[in-house]
Structures are given as C-alpha cells and as structure tokens.
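User: Please fill in residues for this 278-position structure.
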C-alpha cells in the first residue's frame, strides 16, 4: 500500500513538473502610425540652436525586428510671430536635425511634417523654468525611512501658473523615471522635491557612490495634462488605477484626421544637475 501511494505521488509530481502550457497572449492590434518624438529642450546656459526630431512608425507589440525609422519626410518648425522657418535635415536614420534653431521664451512655434502624401501639424509654446537652488540627500522624506533619497529645491515664480516635469536617472540605469508637478497649491513658494527609488524586486536602493542625473523642465499646461496621464499609465494598472485610455498627443493630421500620429511636440527650458551620494 505504501509502495502504491509513493508511486502515485511520484507520478503526480513528475506530471506537474513536466507539464508546460503554451499561453497565447491576446494583444490588441492597431494600424501602423507615424510616431513623433519632437522635444525641443533649451538647456539654460546654452544657445539651444542644435535640436533633433525623431520619426518612427509604430509596430506590433512583439515586433522587435522591423526597421521603424521614417526617412524622406519634410520637417520644419516655424516661429509663429515672425515667420522664421527652421528646416530639420533628414539624417537617413529617422532623425532630423537643425543647428540654427532660435529659442524664445513664451514664443509659440508650429511643427509641420510632410510624409507619405500627408501633412501633420502641432503648435506649442516655449516655457521657462526656474533654477535648482540646492541639492542634498536624506533618509526622512520617502516611504522608506532607511533608504537614501535625493532632494532638490527650487523657488516657484509668483503670480503665474507653472508646470514642471522631473527626470531622474541613476548612472548605469537603462531607463529614467519621470514625475510631474503643477504649482496650484505651492505658487510662489520654495519647493522641496525628493526622489527615492521604488521599493520593488527589480530596484536596488541608492548607496554611497551612486550618481544620479537630474533634469527639471518648465512645461505647458497642455503637455502637463498629457504627460501626467502617460506617467500614470506607464506605472501599470492596479485595482484602484484609472482605466488606460487611448492617449493622443498634439500632432494633428491635416490631410486625414483619422490617421493621427502618436507622440508630442513640446518646447521647454530645462536645467540639469548631477548628484553623488555620500
């Protein structure tokens, strides 16, 4: 009886170990669309004349082999006040570059892309950004009072609406983290902002010697509303999260509105800094 019982257990164990089910993931399909990465960022202390716009075509989720670079497009940005045009030259790899861009704070610009017989357009305003006044470290502001965090301080300008985008990336990490802020409840005050790595299995806490690169962008209200949703959705969906939506940018297809583009045309001023943990 014992022998029979042991044999049955062994059979079941081997069955469970050797059983591998192939699971087909049902991923939604969508038509391939033009994807626009047009972030014209003017770093304080530079002329801002060198700018790059990247064009790709969207592909299926599991497609990692298709060359998505868009070449042969006509790309230009126009200063809406004086009509100055900045032509972005096709580099042949999906990137379009200019070395003559002139950034002007609070100036409106229009992006025009002509590709495959269709014209895409987007308009944005170049927003300013305040300076970072201090950077330090602590263990007291984050969710984990034993983990190191970086703190940045800046003063929000008074009597105006301001919107901010933060970019944090530790040296050696593949991807950065983004966070957003509007000044509705902190207008005109000094703002302390901390960044602590998420407490999950794939992330290690900061340790002395780690270096983090920080960027603070001044962004428009429209871009703030766009990036806020994008950041929320990129964090995954849990029980209390908002249901993901089809997030559209500001690039409109003037020829065929139904064939809209992905991505966004933004203009920002940015300050950058780095910090090494002690």
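Assistant: Residues filled in for all 278 positions:
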């Amino acid at each position: 009886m014992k022998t029979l019982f042991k044999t049955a257990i062994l059979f079941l164990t081997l069955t469970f170990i050797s059983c591998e089910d192939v699971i087909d993931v049902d991923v939604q399909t969508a038509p391939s669309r033009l994807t626009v990465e047009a972030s014209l960022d003017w770093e304080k202390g530079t002329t801002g004349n060198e700018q790059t716009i990247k064009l790709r075509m969207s592909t299926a989720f599991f497609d990692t082999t298709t060359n998505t670079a868009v070449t042969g497009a006509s790309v230009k940005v126009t200063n809406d006040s004086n009509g100055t045009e900045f032509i972005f030259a096709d580099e042949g790899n999906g990137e379009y570059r200019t070395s003559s861009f002139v950034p002007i704070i609070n100036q409106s610009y229009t992006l025009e892309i002509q590709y495959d017989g269709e014209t895409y357009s987007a308009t944005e305003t170049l927003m300013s950004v305040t300076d970072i006044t201090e950077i330090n470290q602590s263990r007291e502001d984050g969710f984990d009072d034993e983990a190191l965090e970086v703190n940045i301080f800046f003063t929000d300008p008074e009597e105006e609406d301001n919107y901010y985008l933060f970019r944090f990336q530790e040296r050696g990490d593949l991807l950065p983290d983004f966070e957003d802020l509007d000044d509705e409840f902190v207008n005109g005050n000094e703002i302390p902002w901390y960044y602590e790595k998420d407490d999950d299995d794939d992330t290690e806490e900061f340790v002395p010697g780690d270096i983090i690169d920080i960027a603070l962008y001044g962004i428009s209200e429209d871009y703030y509303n766009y990036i806020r949703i994008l950041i929320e959705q990129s964090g995954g969906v849990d029980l209390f999260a908002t249901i993901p939506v089809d997030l559209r940018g500001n690039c409109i297809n003037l020829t065929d509105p139904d064939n809209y583009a992905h991505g966004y045309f933004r203009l920002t001023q940015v300050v950058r800094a780095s910090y090494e943990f002690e």
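For context: Confidence is low (pLDDT under 50) at residues 1-19.
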